[in-house]
Amino acid sequence: MRNYTVDRRAGLCGLAVSPYGNGLLGIVALGLFAFGLYSFLEAAYRRINT
């Protein structure tokens, strides 16, 4: 069994402190927001033929 230690530079914290990290996190957040908006609009206006 391997013993893993948790480092502060792991995951999103590591990305945030890296160069261009805040910009990359902003792009990811914007993409998630846009996908959520797209999904909501598709659900609201989709026609289902039965």
Task: Describe what this molecule looks like in 3D.
The chain is an all-alpha fold and 50 residues long. The chain has one domain. Helices cover 64% and strands 0% of the residues. It has two helices and no strands. The protein has helices at residues 11-17, 21-45. The longest helix is centred in the middle third of the chain and has 25 residues, at 21-45. 0% of the residues are buried.
Key descriptive features of the protein:
50 residues; mainly alpha; 2 helices; elongated
What's the short version?
The chain is mainly α. 64% of the residues lie in helices and 0% in strands. The protein has helices at residues 11-17, 21-45.
